[in-house]
Design goal:
The protein has helices spanning about 10-15, 35-40, 55-65, 75-80, 85-95, and strands spanning about 45, 70-75. The protein has a two-stranded parallel ribbon with strand order 1-2. The chain starts with 7 loop residues before the first helix and ends in a 7-residue tail after the last helix. The protein is built from five helices and two strands, in the order H-H-E-H-E-H-H. By secondary structure, the chain is an alpha+beta fold.
């Protein structure tokens, strides 16, 4: 599952200058690593929710999407909006410092 361009998480990442390479009408499309690699992203973010990505997934994703940086993030910052948003923006900015590109 991926983060579609018409989602809260994608808009928060866009605010930070991270472009989503997955266009289209689906909010949470299923995508294989092979299909994602065709978009040649500079960055792949792996949130801790709704799927609990963890350190054990990083090497596989990095191998499946050559040339992309892989960053683990607190999924609450991409999926829980409202009072959490200002802090989420700062936490995401801190996590992505030095990273640029696409999700």
């Amino acid at each position: 599952m991926a983060l579609g361009s018409d989602t809260y998480g994608s808009s928060v990442l866009a605010l930070l200058g991270v472009a989503n390479v997955l266009p289209g009408p689906e909010r949470y499309p299923e995508v294989t690593l092979e299909a994602l690699a065709l978009h040649e992203p500079d960055l792949v973010v792996l949130p801790s929710e709704p799927y609990p990505f963890a350190e054990r997934h990083v090497a596989g994703v990095a191998a499946g999407v050559p040339g992309a940086g892989v960053v683990l993030l607190d999924g609450r910052d991409l999926f829980w909006w409202g009072a959490r948003t200002p802090g989420a923006v700062e936490r995401l900015r801190s996590s992505l410092t030095g990273s640029s590109g696409a999700t």
